[in-house]
Amino acid sequence: MGYQKIKGTQDFIGERALSLASIRDRLVAGAERFGYLPIMTPLFEATEVFVRGVGEGTDVVTKEMYTFEDKGGRSITLRPEGTAAVVRAVVENKLYALPGLKKYCYFGPMFRYERPQAGRFREFHQFGVEAFGEITPACDVDVIACAWEGLKSLGITDMVLKINTIGDFASREAYSAALREYFTPHEAELCEDCRNRLAKNPLRILDCKVDGDSALVRNAPAIASSLSSEAKSYFAEVKDGLTALGIPFVIDPTLVRGLDYYTGCVFEIQSTHEDALKGLALGGGGKYSGLMKSLGGPDVPGIGYALGIERIMTARELLARPALATPARPLVIASLDPASRTHALVLARDLRAAGFTVELDYSATSLKPQFRLAERLGAQRLIIIGEAERDSATVTLKDLTTGMQETVREADLVKTLREGK
Ligand code: HAM
């Protein structure tokens, strides 16, 4: 038996690979209009980048990272997300010292050892943006708008934006204390992970995949009771901004996100499609204030989001959206003898340079199999070259829809094809 792909991974072949690439191109182009420049970081980093960045108490770090020792004895981790890696790059390249807001976008595979199921893979793709500098409510609104517009540009409609604030550092500390006080008498009712979270980071209990839906968690105190007045007015400004942009949102006080670096406003855009994706996040993000400092840089806050490309692809399929890109219908060049095949290669080079997609049969010298190739590829036109054509510097151009055939001077071929004759 041959080899099979690793559980939770996928092959992207032909049209699906084209679709992935077009989604990427559209999101990158959209983000560029918001002022984001592309950034590419390695697929793996020193493990510490994610442990310190994402947070020791998170599921991502405790259970889901692909971590290994390289031959030099270093602990390496395949990136489970992009933010910590981008912040590492910003610190290492001192990009924080550039004037104004620094804005970057990225696309690529991420790796998490999660239980594979609908919309959940072990290798998946994210498109994300991160901005660094002075983050104001208008910036939060613009970042959310970028994610929202990006999804809309891909034809996604059945989605809901959920927002919450987990406050500034002071609010977050006060909230952690309130949660600890609430959950401690009920410790025995919590799962083993949550009992650990109670001491380390009680906010994570709200996000637990086991306890998250229990009445105990649902009745936990809401963040609003612990918010400082600054955090409240910041959140109010974000809500006003979203309203002004006509972006509908729902406030979800239990939304805390699965990564530890967030402070301030957080958001998720979830699918509402009555199917496999229901309730799954198409993307999410928020503001993070202490991450750069914890990775050895200055105390510069950041904000960003990431969208899950596989989930977007599924959502597009469920919504029956037309393909964003289809393979080009090629021109096929048929050659009737070996010398003409060499000639066909030269002609193919020139036509490709002129922007046409060109296919040829590399072995046949009779017409029938080359017709079949043209048929199989959905070609509209067939260019035939034989000895007679070579001698007269012409080609025979056959329209496969009408069956009409004409002799065209090679020198006029590009022009004739462009005119669609
Ligand atoms: P996240 O919520 O962990 O955030 O992931 C963002 C998106 O990636 C999710 O909403 C989902 O669409 C997709 N995703 C996550 N895990 C999987 C999986 N196992 N299979 C398929 N898709 C998945 C982050 O990663 C943050 N770095 C976002 C961010 C950027 N926050 C600030 N800046």
Q: Can you tell me about this structure?
A:
There is one protein chain. The protein is α+β, with helices and mostly antiparallel strands and 421 residues long. 37% of the residues lie in helices and 21% in strands. It has helices at 15-33, 47-54, 59-63, 83-92, 137-153, 169-183, 192-200, 215-218, 229-245, 291-294, 309-318, 338-353, 367-376, 387-392, 413-418, and strands spanning 37-38, 44-46, 66-69, 75-78, 102-111, 123-132, 159-165, 250-251, 265-271, 281-288, 302-308, 331-335, 358-360, 381-385, 394-399, 405-409. A hairpin with a 5-residue loop joins strand 3 (66-69) and strand 4. The chain is elongated and about 90 Å long. The model has no long low-confidence stretch (mean pLDDT 94). Histidyl-adenosine monophosphate (HAM) is lined by residues 81-83, 112, 114, 119-121, 124, 126, 128, 130, 258-259, 281-286, 304-306, 308, 310-311. Histidyl-adenosine monophosphate (HAM) binds at residues 81-83, 112, 114, 119-121, 124, 126, 128, 130, 258-259, 281-286, 304-306, 308, 310-311.
